[in-house]
Amino acid sequence: MKTKLYDIAHSRAGDKGNTLTLSLIPYLAEDYHLLCEQVTAEAVKKQLQGIVAGEVTRYELPNLPALNFVCKQALMGGVTISLTMDTHGKSLSYALLEMEIEK
Amino acid sequence: MKNKIRIGCGAGFSGDRLETAVILAEKGELDYLVLECLAERTIALAQKRKMQDASKGYDPLLERRIELLLPILTQKKVRLITNMGAANPIAAAQVICQIATRLNISVMVAALTGDDVLSQLTGEEMALETDKPLNASGQPISANAYLGIEALLPALATSADIIITGRVADPSLFVAPLVHEFGWSTDDYEKLGQGTVIGHLLECAGQLTGGYFADPGKKDVPDFAHLGHPFADVSPDGTALFSKVEGTGGILSLATAKEQLLYEVMDPSQYITPDVVADFTGVYLQEVEKNKIRAWGGRGTAKPATLKVSVGYAAGFVGEGEISYAGSNALGRAQLAGQVIKQRLASSFSDLRIDYIGSTSVHRKTFGQHPEPYEVRLRVAGKAKTAAQAATIGEEVEALYTNGPAGGGGARKYVHEVVGIVSTLIPRNKVNSTVTLVKS
Questions:
Q1: How far from B409 is each of B328, B355, B399, CA to CA, in Å?
Q2: A35 vs B contacts (CB less than 8 Å)
């Protein structure tokens, strides 16, 4: 069955220059392995097509548990010079949570 | 040595709410209050204010915050550490003393300077973001090194009631009082790593206690309107218990703490500050009771040989215009307006941003199928070398009233100056910090 990440996890976006960071935290620790299996760096890059132009790297934090994604060239130049509405990319946590996985 | 230090954070950015810090100072039984008010761009803007008026360049809310807080801080014997000095910590210290004199309060302020390294740069240094010399981005107008605990400790060693700084790494504002009180060695990287975890969790204030978290029905935050800001009780071994003032709103849970722990973090095993390369991957969080979270397990390795320098440069002006359409075919009319504006401005703006607010403006696309919105706001933005040229965008959008599609309303136009930010590295030994004491 397809499930939106929104239903099983939460996320906060942050910015460093033109780089976007996205945490992904399961509500239930038991869903962490699902996220590890299906929410790969490649899958996130595909989900954020048209938003993230650069490389996506995934970091695992099993003791929380949580994943952290670092997305390069994601903010149209970064907070200070970007022409986009959301110059920090703060709303993009919810772009990740729109992703669907198999549960 | 005390067996516990309580540090609260009453502001997580320059525009943060005023009353949260007052509540923390009044009822938090704090040893230290930290106000973190300096973003990357804020200091460049402050530098510009200082260039216009040498007595300015500190945080624009400094006076209002200090007037509210000073009597309470004095009465409760809470020490204040803040980066509200921005581009001019000494002027900020003088302003604080003037307020103190007016309030008949005796205060000593330690102003920390030395972060301003603009005169030391040639412009030929490489920018980390572009791999090109700094000058290639634009003429630098400010350059501030991120100072750390080594710069803060001499200020803490004085008897100053308030320590006011310019650019200091945010977690260092919290790590420094821990090192000062517990006598941690500045090369005890395990402790400094854990201290950095504490600082990182606190530095955005309300973001730890339910701010930037709420999602009704999914992540509910009780009594949100009265969101309280957090404090931590830190033990000499670095273990910390996070909480907030009894009776304040908000929530401090594993979920809020996890979101904040990873906020703006790149590689969690290498979180670089001037003090330590902190490792967050061993951090454990435990809910001890409602609204009380214990954190331990932060580690670290040796600090870098260089300091990061944030460089601001003039990047021209942005002009914006907005107008709304509602009812049947709102999106169609907004899109027609967008096309018309693009054509009308084509000769002067090659890179014009056209957004449809209510549809695709923040994510720059939509995911899945969505019904057409009832109302749509057109937003047009572009960059220009002069304010006058930037203003033509808003002028054209406003002119859609009589020269655009049917039913446009609520036009607004804006122009703002743009300061770009790039960063570079500077050898630690080229940065010399100074503490200046100012008394009321």
A1: 15, 16, 11
A2: none
